[in-house]
Amino acid sequence: MPKMKTKKSAAKRFRVRPGGTVKRGQAFKRHILTKKSTKRKRQLRGATDVHATNMGHIAQMMPFA
Description:
Blueprint: H1 8-13, E1 14-16, E2 22-24, H2 38-43, E3 48-49, H3 55-61
Antiparallel strand pairs: 1-2, 2-3
InterPro entries: Ribosomal_bL35, Ribosomal_bL35-like, Ribosomal_bL35_CS, Ribosomal_bL35_sf
GO molecular function: structural constituent of ribosome
Organism: Thiomonas delicata (Thiomonas cuprina)
C-alpha cells in the first residue's frame, strides 16, 4: 500500500483548530475590489468555518490534521 500523503494545496488553504473544526479564508476579496462596498470587503476580511458537508473531503485531503 502506498504512503498516505497530505494534499499540499489543501494544507495551505485550511487550518484545523484544536476543537476539530476547520478554518478557511473568504473568497471574493483578491481583485476587482473597487466595485465592492467597504462593508462587503470588511465582512470578507476574517476567516470562517468550513461547512459540515465539506468536512469529509477535507479529512481525506489532510489525513494527518
